[in-house]
């Protein structure tokens, strides 16, 4: 068979497969509509339906990854299913999600990675505003950064948990690639100023010291804001990610300039809805201990004794007394698991205050 005939035959096969895929996706979407009807039918007066089920979505993605035989990799296949679910959920009820904006930030990328493209996403100017939108019920969920593997905690986010009553419903991790971006009119050999968010400047500190030691580094409110500024200036560049580059039509003068190749940021999904256990969960809590010797030891012991994996501990000023602190802790398990319940009870006896911020499925993607 000639090359042309082979390609023709293969394309006919692909067309047939696409038609079958379309049929199956449509059938799946009709099932999701049916699920919505069932959820509505069992509502008692005054109850609001829960359309979005993160624990179920986590299971679907994990299951697909477990049975995937290739040739597409697990991440690739999960991304496709992520989008199918996102569209199915939007048929039931479109989700409204607020994120730390403006458009083009890594937080927006994290929101889309977690919820898929079919959500209605709204940028907010500050982390605190994301919290307030969720508390007021103006949106279903919020997405905020909480820690970066190079630069550590995002303190604004931790402090916001002290001020708002909110539930953590999920987490999402994003590999952060920073690029040096320039516009069409940038004189690339005469750059005198580089804009970026302080976190991003810090993530590229060594690279900047080596390549642009004498150039002014200007910290602005977001990477997207940095990219926007470069549009109007011939002598400046921005450090930002792909989304900001696309949004403002900038090109990459240098790619992946972050100092650490594994540079990642973890984001939290905040909402008003408790998430049931999946068997592979994480819990976040705030604990404030008495100001006495051995207080931290008392907090850590129950985890050690029960072999519970404490994945993170962060200290912040308590804001209710000088030199008093609260601990933000993350650990594996769900607060409804009997073992975790016991541990929390033990800690509660020693602590001045203990608040579980939420238990949620470990990031799948
Ligand atoms: C279909 C459901 O509703 C939503 C859509 C899902 C899907 O498309 O698979 C999964 C969970 C929910 O977020 C459900 O609850 O099963």
UniProtKB/TrEMBL annotation:
GO biological process: chorismate metabolic process; L-phenylalanine biosynthetic process
UniProt cross-references to SUPFAM superfamilies, sorted A to Z: ACT-like, Chorismate mutase II, Periplasmic binding protein-like II
Annotated ranges, domain Chorismate mutase: 1-96
Record site: Essential for prephenate dehydratase activity: 265
The UniProt record lists the keyword Cytoplasm: yes
Annotated ranges, domain Prephenate dehydratase: 96-272
SMART domains: CM_2 (SM00830)
Protein function: Catalyzes the Claisen rearrangement of chorismate to prephenate and the decarboxylation/dehydration of prephenate to phenylpyruvate.
Pathway terms, separated by semicolons: Amino-acid biosynthesis; L-phenylalanine biosynthesis; phenylpyruvate from prephenate: step 1/1; Metabolic intermediate biosynthesis; prephenate biosynthesis; prephenate from chorismate: step 1/1
Enzyme Commission number(s): 4.2.1.51, 5.4.99.5
Major location category of this protein: cytoplasm
Any one GO CC term of the record: cytoplasm
One Pfam match: CM_2
Domain ACT per the UniProt entry, residue ranges: 284-361
InterPro entries per record: ACT-like_dom_sf, ACT_dom, Chor_mutase/pphenate_deHydtase, Chorismate_II_sf, CM_dom_sf, CM_II_prokaryot, G/b/e-P-prot_chorismate_mutase, Preph_deHydtase
Keywords (A to Z) from UniProt: Amino-acid biosynthesis, Aromatic amino acid biosynthesis, Coiled coil, Cytoplasm, Isomerase, Lyase, Multifunctional enzyme, Phenylalanine biosynthesis
Localization, UniProt: Cytoplasm
Catalysed reaction equations from the record: prephenate + H(+) = 3-phenylpyruvate + CO2 + H2O; chorismate = prephenate
Name the UniProt record assigns to this protein: Bifunctional chorismate mutase/prephenate dehydratase
Molecular functions per Gene Ontology: chorismate mutase activity; prephenate dehydratase activity
């Amino acid at each position: 068979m000639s090359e042309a005939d082979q390609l023709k035959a293969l394309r006919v096969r692909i067309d047939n497969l696409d038609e079958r895929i379309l049929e199956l996706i449509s059938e799946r979407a009709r099932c999701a509509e049916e699920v919505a009807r069932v959820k509505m039918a069992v509502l008692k007066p005054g109850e609001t339906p829960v359309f979005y089920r993160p624990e179920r979505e986590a299971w679907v993605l994990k299951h697909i990854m477990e049975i995937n035989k290739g040739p597409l990799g697990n991440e690739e296949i999960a991304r496709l299913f992520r989008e199918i679910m996102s569209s199915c959920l939007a048929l039931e009820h479109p989700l409204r999600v607020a994120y730390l904006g403006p458009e083009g930030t890594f937080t927006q990328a994290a929101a889309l990675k977690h919820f898929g493209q079919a959500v209605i996403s709204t940028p907010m100017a500050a982390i605190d505003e994301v919290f307030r939108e969720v508390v007021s019920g103006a949106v279903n969920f919020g997405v905020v950064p909480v820690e970066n593997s190079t630069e550590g905690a995002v303190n604004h986010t931790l402090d916001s948990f002290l001020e708002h009553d909110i539930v953590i419903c999920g987490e999402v991790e994003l590999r952060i690639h920073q690029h040096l971006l320039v516009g069409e009119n940038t004189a690339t050999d005469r750059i005198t100023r580089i804009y970026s968010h302080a976190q991003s400047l810090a993530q590229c500190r060594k690279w900047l010291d080596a390549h642009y030691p004498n150039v002014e580094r200007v910290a602005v409110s977001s990477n997207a804001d940095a990219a926007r500024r470069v549009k109007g200036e011939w002598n400046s560049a921005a450090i930002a990610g792909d989304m900001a580059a696309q949004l403002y039509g900038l090109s990459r003068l240098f790619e992946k300039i972050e100092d650490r190749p594994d540079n990642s940021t973890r984001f939290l999904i905040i909402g008003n809805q408790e998430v049931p256990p999946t068997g592979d969960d994480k819990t976040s809590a705030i604990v404030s201990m008495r100001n006495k010797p051995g207080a931290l030891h008392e907090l850590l012991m129950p985890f050690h004794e029960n072999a519970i994996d404490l994945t993170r501990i962060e200290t912040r000023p308590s804001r209710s007394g000088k030199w008093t602190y609260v601990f933000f802790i993350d650990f594996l398990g769900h607060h409804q698991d009997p073992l975790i319940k016991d541990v929390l009870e033990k800690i509660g006896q020693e602590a001045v205050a203990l608040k579980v911020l939420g238990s949620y499925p470990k990031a799948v993607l």
